[in-house]
Amino acid sequence: MQVLAPTTAEDFRQYYELRWKVLRAPWDQPRGSERDALDDTSSHLMLVDAGRTLLGVGRLHFNTIREAQIRYMAIDIPCQRKGLGSILLSALENRACELGAAMIVLDARESALGFYHKHGYLACGSGHVLFNRIAHLQMLKALDNPAQGK
Ligand SMILES: CC(C)(COP(=O)(O)OP(=O)(O)OC[C@H]1O[C@@H](n2cnc3c(N)ncnc32)[C@H](O)[C@@H]1OP(=O)(O)O)[C@@H](O)C(=O)NCCC(=O)NCCS
Which end of the chain is more exposed for a tag (fewer CB within 10 A), N or C? Predict the structure, then answer.
């Protein structure tokens, strides 16, 4: 098991395919709906097994130089609730620290609140409702970041 940054065209094809499969296909959303304008300038991480099969994806972008945001966290459906999301989230947090973040914000689906709460994220406001169906809550985690202020 390892966390990597996608680099090749095939990496990115699989990366976006998994994002779509977990976060868009169950709501009948078309391919392409899983991407946004910030993808080109964001940090992407993928979790792969020993045979390099893709198991999970997640993205990090910055809203300000100190505030990072995680979006599009997705673990492949048969692999959920086995600790993989925790590995990926930890890697995204480490990456945010390396890039100088003091805090991470995210919009959590209500169904994933328990996951983020377990990892120290606190609800800080109501978020958007996706596809008129998926309610989100804004969550925040302050980072104890030795790189901050350098
Ligand atoms: C949310 C998600 C990324 C979590 O990854 P995961 O690999 O399933 O989570 P982990 O196994 O690392 O979870 C660790 C702990 O978080 C908590 N947790 C995980 N998913 C949870 C959920 N849906 N509801 C409540 N608590 C949850 C549990 O305490 C879990 O420990 P346990 O399994 O021993 O009870 C993953 O389930 C997923 O991709 N879900 C569908 C897409 C999604 O909702 N993405 C987030 C969008 S904001």
Answer: C
Continuous segment of H or E residues that includes residue 10: helix 9-23
Mean pLDDT per block of 10 residues along the chain (150 residues) reads: 97 98 96 97 98 97 97 98 98 97 96 96 84 84 77
Q: Is the sign of the CA dihedral 86, 51, 96, 70 positive or negative?
A: negative
Distance from residue 2's CA to the centre of ligand 1 (Å):
18
108 φ, ψ to 5°? -95, 135
Atom of ligand 1 lying closest to residue 86 CA? 12
pLDDT of res. 34: 97
Domains and CATH numbers, the chain: 2-102 (3.40.630.30)
Residue 112, classed as helix, strand or coil, is helix
Atom of ligand 1 nearest to the CA of 80: 8
CB atoms < 10 A from the CB of 93, how many? Answer: 20
Contacts of 70 (CB under 8 A, 6+ apart): 58, 59, 60, 89, 92, 96, 104, 105, 106
